[in-house]
Structure formats: C-alpha cells, structure tokens
Design goal:
Blueprint lengths: L34 H7 L30 H7 L71 H6 L5 H29 L23 H8 L3 E7 L4 E8 L5 E4 L1 H9 L4 E5 L5 E10 L4 E6 L20 E6 L7 E16 L8 E8 L11 E3 L5 E8 L10 E5 H14 L5 E2 L3 E6 L4 E7 L5 H5 L6 E5 L2 E2 L3 H9 L6 E8 L2 E8 L1 E2 L1
Antiparallel strand pairs: 1-2, 1-4, 2-3, 3-6, 4-5, 5-6, 7-8, 7-10, 8-9, 9-12, 10-11, 11-12, 13-20, 14-15, 15-16, 16-17, 16-18, 18-19
C-alpha cells in the first residue's frame, strides 16, 4: 500500500486511505467487427456523412427499383405524357375532338373575376360568391297594373259576354249541385228525421176548475210581497201579506227587526209585477212575532182573512212567499196539527216569542217568514213564521201563526201602533208526573192577577177556560186567547187536590 502524499492529504489513485476507496477507470474494450456485418450495415465507402445525397447504386443500373413498373394501360390513362414535363397534373377536360369542355378561364394562367373561379386562388373568408356586376343604381319598383271594376268587367268589353255567361251558369250549377248533394247526404245520414213534420197542437187551453191550486195561486200571489232589508251591516229577504187597501202589509217581527235596529237599513216591498216601494214600520209585537209596515201604493191586491178556527187536520193549505229569495213561490200541503204552542228565543235578546201555531207539511224555508198560509178557498188562515229542522231546510214541520190571532194583533197595531196581551202575572215552568202534566208555578208577584186569585207557589195549572194546559208555553197561549179584564176559570192541582179558581186577567 502506498503512502499518502505530504502537504495536501490527497491519496493516490487506487490507494486506500483508510476512510475512502477510489477505483481506477475500467479499461476500454473494443471487440473486432465482423467484415460481413460491416459490409451490410456500415457506411459505404466514399460517403463522409450520415446520409448519402443519392441512393447507392447497388446493381449498377441506376436508382433502386422498389416496385414493379405499373401496367402500360394505367400509365397511359393516369400518367404524365412523355416529353411534357411542364404540364400540370390538373388538365382541362376535352371532348372527343380534343376541344376543351369548360371555359378556358379555369385553366389559363389569368385570374378569374372572383376567387371561386380561379383554381389557383387561396382559400379566404370573404363576401358571398357572386359574380361582380356593375352598379346600375336602385331598381325602380314596377307600377301596379290597372284593376278592372265591375262596370268595366261587364260593360267595358274587357271580357267576352259569352265568357261571363258561362261563368255565371257554372256558378249556378255548382251551387245547385252542392245543395242537392247536401240534401241527399242529410237524408241518408239520419233516416229517422223528417224535415216536413208538423206536430199536432191542442187548441183549447187546460181547464182549471174553481178551487184548484193553480186558480188559487193565480188569485192570491198578487197580494203576497217580498220584503227586502239592506243596510251597512244587515241584508235579507222575507215575505209579507197586503191586508188593507191603504198599503198595510202584515209580516213577522223578525223580518223587520234587523232593519229597525240598524238605522242605515231600508225596507223595500217588491210586488209580483216588479213594482217597488219603500216601507215604514207601523208597529211591532215582538212577543208574538208579528209586525205591520206600510207602503204608498195605488190600488193594491188585498188578501182577506179566513176563519182559522174552522180548520181541521188534513185540510189542504198553500204556503206562498219568497223562500231563499225566490219570490212568488207556492207550495201545497195539509194541516198536520192545530193549536201547537211554539216558543222561540227573542230577536237579539228580546222577550221570548210564544204563539199558538198551525202545523203544516207544506214546504216552508227561510224567506217564507211573513208569507201567507191560505186554505182551499184562498183565504188567509195563517202567517208562516218558523220551521223545525235538523238540516236547516224544510223537513215537513212548518208553523204559522193562526189567522184569527194575527188579525187581532195587526188590527191593534194599525190602530195604536202597539198591542197589549192578557196575562196572569205568574212565572211557571213545564212539569209532568205519572198522573198529570201542566205548568208549575215558580213564583207569584204581589198585586198580580194570580196573587189576587189565590194561586200559590208550587201549584200546577192544568186548564185555563176550555183549553187544556200541558206545559208553560201552552199556558201562555191559552191566557192570550182571552181579553184583558176577562175572568176565566183556572184548574190547578195543589197537594194532590184539584182546585178551580177564578182569575181576572190583567195586561202584560
């Protein structure tokens, strides 16, 4: 091992200095070249560069022949003519005589009028390919030719008369032919129709005997009116009956009450002929749900009262009014019950309404209120007032205030503007037991008619005059059947005993 050189500390080549080992270069090894491979793959003699400018002459007969020569037919058809080295590949087509078939401009060296006609022009984006035309200015619009009028056509000798006649005859023939074809198609299309049919008509009118529903309705409906009330917050329609020639109309109190309570509301009476008149309230009886209004009208049709006490269950009656705002509505039914006491709440917290009612199955609906219930003679026997229903519509349980009582109340309202009723001055409630039922006295005010007659608290009233009392409402209507100041016998039960006392009725 050699010693390290002194001074710089660098070890000699191939010498291990104890920390690093450096190897000497590998000797160059060039094996001998095979002469055969060198002749095939080596650079030809006399060629200094990597590529030869000319292909080497391997066979001593010119350039290398890479493929067999093409057939003579193909060379003649598609090859370049011999001796014509300047002719371009694209040549103008010629005919059998050797004459060009297209314009020479395509094949001459001169450029065409536009680039599209010059095969040598480069591809550019330019204006549409149109041939340049000289600017001749704006083309004048052609003037419209003269138009022929009908006189000129007929008399101006512009068209031959025979042509016009033939045209007219042709139009008539076409129209007639179309009509005939349409008529034939119509008959063939629906063989069941007959265009010439005339149905027979019965000349005499339907016979309506006196007393028929149609005859009664024709006589009565002009006296039944519609009552409209309309205000800032209320609106509705009811019915009414003209009961006097001076324009007095009888109706229900609950029909006019909204218009009275709303000062902005106006009452209007509408007659069957469409005439309208503003109404004013004459008087109201809220306890029996009756009211009278008046209109200024000339010669109204008046409905006369009948005797409601003569009615019997099963009698035919007609209800006339404006149910659901449908004026001049007539429904037919029978009297299904008499002396049916009806009690209803007062209008807007007013006193309780109680009246003796006629029950009927004639259809009565909202809007019939205040209308007429007439018998088979056309006489007024009741004022339709209320219904009993679970659906809001008619179920065949309608109630009308008896005509006799309505006549008494309306007469008092027309005379005095108010009405007073007979009263016993006693508070009662409905009571029933196994052996009896009636109106049980709750309290007796001092100084009243009942107190003066000796009626005591706890007594059960069972009869007033000739009328049986089965509940509190029936006691009220039984008392109101009598006059103020009249003395009537009252039968009552007290501690298991039956007593009869005489009561002198007073005003309510």
């Amino acid at each position: 091992m050699s010693e390290p050189e002194q001074g710089n500390g660098t070890p000699r080549s191939g010498v291990d200095d104890g920390a690093h080992r450096r190897l000497a270069p590998r000797p160059l090894h060039r094996p001998p070249v095979d002469p055969g491979q060198q002749a095939v793959f080596g650079r030809p003699q006399g060629v200094p560069g990597a590529f030869s400018p000319d292909r080497p002459n391997l066979n001593g007969h010119g350039s290398v022949q890479l493929a067999p020569p093409p057939p003579e037919a193909l060379s003649t058809a598609f090859g370049r003519p011999r001796g014509d080295e300047g002719t371009r590949l694209q040549r103008p087509p010629v005919d059998l005589n050797g004459e060009p078939e297209v314009e020479p401009v395509f094949w001459e060296g001169k450029p065409a009028g536009d680039s599209w006609r010059d095969p040598g022009a480069s591809a550019v984006i330019g204006p549409p390919a149109v041939t340049e035309q000289p600017d001749r200015g704006p083309k004048p619009e052609p003037e419209p030719g003269p138009q022929l009028s009908v006189p000129e056509l007929l008399f101006g000798r512009r068209v031959k008369p025979t042509a016009l006649v033939l045209l007219l005859v042709a139009a008539l023939l076409v129209g007639a032919g179309g009509g005939v074809v349409g008529w034939l198609l119509g008959r063939v299309g629906n063989p069941l129709t007959d265009g010439g049919v005339t149905l027979a008509e019965v000349k005499p009118g339907k016979e309506r005997p006196v007393g028929s529903v149609a005859e009664i309705a024709q006589r009565v409906t002009p006296s039944v009116v519609s009552i409209e009330f309309k205000g800032a917050s209320v609106a509705g329609v009811g019915s009414g009956v003209v009961i006097d020639g001076e324009g007095y109309v009888l109706t229900n109190d609950h029909v006019v009450a909204p218009a009275v309570q709303d000062t902005s509301a106006k009452l209007t009476v509408v007659f069957t002929d469409g005439k309208r008149a503003v109404a004013q309230v004459v008087g109201r009886d809220s306890k029996t749900d009756l009211a009278v209004i008046k209109v200024e009208v000339d010669n109204p049709t008046v409905l006369q009262f009948g005797d409601s006490d003569e009615l019997a269950v099963g009698d035919t009656v007609l209800a006339i009014g404006s149910p659901l705002s449908l004026s001049n509505t007539v429904t037919e039914g029978i009297v299904s019950a008499l002396h049916r006491p009806v009690t209803a709440a007062g209008e807007n917290g007013g006193p309780q309404v109680t009246y003796d009612a006629i029950q009927t199955d004639a259809a009565i609906n909202p809007g019939n209120s205040g209308g007429a219930l007439v018998d088979s003679s056309g006489a007024l026997v009741g004022i339709n007032s209320s219904i009993r229903t679970e659906t809001g519509g008619s179920v065949g349980l309608g109630f009308a205030i008896t005509g006799n009582y309505a006549r008494k109340v309306s007469q008092a309202l027309i005379r005095d503007g108010q009405v007073k009723h007979a009263d016993m001055n006693v508070n009662v409630r409905s009571a029933s037991a196994e052996t009896a039922e009636g109106a049980q006295v709750q309290n007796v005010p001092d100084g009243g008619a009942a107190d003066a007659a000796g009626i005591e608290e706890g007594d059960v009233i069972t009869r007033v005059g000739d009328r049986m009392v089965r509940n509190a409402a029936e006691l009220t209507v039984a008392v109101r059947d009598h006059e103020i100041g009249e003395t009537v016998p009252v039968v009552l039960a007290r501690q298991g005993r039956e007593l009869t006392v005489q009561v002198t009725l007073r005003s309510d």
